[in-house]
């Protein structure tokens, strides 16, 4: 990423923790066969968020060591799958569209940062298209605010905070991470 080193490492820690938690939820979850639509969507979200969190952490610390085309495939293929599932699936779920936007944003960021000058040039031109970057900043800023209000809503009851609070906190941290990543472009 083209930002201050401290921001890159903080972003990596934040997103790795969120991705690791989602990965642990996948490991603890029983098979999705026969468990209903809600369980399948929860499993699907955990898989997407684990990929995004761990991938974002790896992207933040690897810098230019991994070619942008690799990141484009890593994030672009799942984004396309989620986009098709959101548009063509029998239950056009909004979470699938959100995961598609996240994957496409990561693909865009990888390609834009690869085309941008190195981070050492403080006044170098920004990577990416300013309009698209701005639209994505608005989306992830709005999503983070929305996720934050939902997280605050779960803290009213101890049981609700224990069961729903941590996954919502991970979604909030992923939204903030995406926002921070886009700001550094």
Automatic annotation (TrEMBL):
Residue stretches spanning the membrane: 6-26, 69-88, 100-119, 131-153
Keywords: Membrane, Transmembrane, Transmembrane helix
Name of this protein: DUF5134 domain-containing protein
Organism annotation: Kitasatospora aburaviensis
Lineage, uppermost ranks: Bacteria, Bacillati, Actinomycetota, Actinomycetes, Kitasatosporales
